Amino acid sequence: MISKSMYENILLNEIRGLSDRELSKVIKTIHFLKEEILDEKCQNVADVLRFSGVWKDLPRKDLQIFSEIQIS
Description:
Elements: H1 4-15, H2 20-37, H3 45-50, H4 60-67
């Protein structure tokens, strides 16, 4: 299982080199995910992401990372 610090490193590697405008979009997307997708009402994150157009082009291995996230 991937640790929290490993997830953080994956995220940091993904956003390195992005422009200010791109980073702003990433922050807005993360806010949206936290408020609308990762809400306690959401029982299965992978099911929600599967239907989201933003995620449909992700390689299966990357989508697997999201399915391993557990809502606490």
